[in-house]
Amino acid sequence: MAKFFNDWGGAPVFGAGALILILVIWLIWSNRPGSTVSDEVFEINDSYLGLEVDGTRIGDPSAPLTIWIHEDFQCSHCKTFSSEITHPLIDTFVKNGDAQLVFVNTPILGNESVDAAIGSLCAADQNVFWQYHDLLFLRQGRPNSGVYSQDNLEEFAQELIGEGINLDINTFKDCLARGISHPGVAWASEAAVNNGFNGTTPYALIGSYPISGVVDFAEIEQIVMNQLQ
Fold first, then answer.
1. 90 and which of 1, 94, 96, 228 could share a cystine (Cβ 3.0–4.6 Å)?
2. pTM for this one?
């Protein structure tokens, strides 16, 4: 065994080989999908400026149309829906008073879906839900891989504070620690039943018209116009 060890270069070679192996394992681990939080730059959406916000609702509560959005923050299609449907809906119909939009947490993909939902509700308590909503989707990774750990959820809140968002971090942490006892959890469950949620996300109820999955905004726009008539 000693001869074999020495023939292959002895301690320096084996030491270097071990170091390389450790480095390779670390690179694979640190770069696996969803294992780390995306460091993409977060930008505050100006669409929310000047709009009335109450918890997860945005827009005039007396608007003639209510649009319900059911999503899971770990759902990749929900992330697409948020950018391609939700934001344009706010710009097109919420800003002019035709509709109000209500987000309903429907966590279906595991524990971190629930944790992210609670984090968003804690942000909603301070009326910064929509900014936190955008940040959660921006940082989305592989489901249940640690992206939405409690430490990260707190760091996301700190990130908003760093962007000038008025959020009390101690209040947020206390809320997060209470977990599923948050009243918004029971409210979301009731809303899901009332809105005919079909068990898959994203799901939207536009007035009385249900939509499942991601569709073209032009189709959504026409449905909204029909519901407003």
1. 94
2. 0.82
Show contacts of 40-47: CB within 8 Å, 24+ apart. Answer: 40/138, 40/139, 42/134, 42/135, 42/138, 42/159, 42/163, 44/131, 44/163, 44/164, 44/165, 45/87, 45/130, 45/131, 45/134, 47/87, 47/90, 47/91, 47/95
- Is a pLDDT exceeding 70 seen at residue 24? no
What type of residue is 168? D
CATH number at residue 100: 3.40.30.10
Residues 202 and 109 sit within 8 Å (Cβ to Cβ): no
80 occurs within a structural domain: yes
CA 210 from centre of chain: 22
**Domain ranges, residue 203:** 46-228
Task: List Cα–Cα distances, 93 to 59, 100, 168, 173, 188, in angstroms.
Answer: 9, 8, 31, 34, 23
Residues 212 and 113 in one domain: yes
181 belongs to a structural domain = yes
Structural domains of the chain, count: 2
Give the pLDDT of residue 39. Answer: 73
Torsional class of 169: left (φ above 0), alpha (ψ -120 to 50), beta (otherwise): alpha
Same structural domain, 108 and 162: yes
